[in-house]
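INTERNAL AUDIT FORM
Audit reference: QA-55
Scope: verify that the stored structure record matches its stored sequence.
Auditor: D.O.
Record contents follow.
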Amino acid sequence: MYDPLAQRAAQEIALLKDIRLVRVTVSHPADAPQIAHLRLKPPLDDADINEIERARQYEMEQTEIAFPGAPEILRSFYKNIIQGSLIHETSMLRGLGFELPTVWRAEVFPELSGTTPSSILAVGKVKDTRFILSWNWLPEYPEYDEELKVLASNGRVEYHLAKPYVLEERSRLTVFKHDLHERQDTTYTQINETGFLRQLLAFKDSVVNGTEVISNLAGVRKDLAVLQAITRSIIDSQRN
């Protein structure tokens, strides 16, 4: 949504006709290799442990309201992975102008164990367009990778997003068009600045100057509706 190429991507997607498939693929490595290059100092041990525990309990209570009777391991997976990471994909798709499915078929694999995250595969549809969200936990993968592909009758769009913890990195957008046998392939890049950095700057601007942000409460509610539909499908798949 905040990526420098997001507006261009939305414009190109709007020109596609008869979109058949929208697929997001995430390759998520372990956390430590992603931030090792930042050489971060150890965090200060100044947090109120009681306040942290209160917040954790509140989160778990709210998750229990959303998914009554769901096992704690699944509620934790929803809170940490689905809300913590998969939400980036639903937010991105909304920002690009897509109407998201309200009904999903989803599964996790391997089975939830509590030691490491499971991967997620979720499939939904809006009219004749199929949506696939593929979030893959690959702890030994060398780097985070996030890609959107949109396939349509008159072309396709491939959007490779910059890695989140590299401050000077470019996203890449490739647009494939065709007119009978004539093809045109165009690749766009922008400045070395990630969407995560721009979002942080927008947050600062909203706090300091009261500037309205584009990722607002209404959008978050739409994301949560999708994420909860995916989670309910995962719960159903675990029961079968």
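Auditor finding: record pair retrieved intact. Helices lie at 6-14, 31-35, 49-66, 72-95, 195-209, 217-239.
Action required: none
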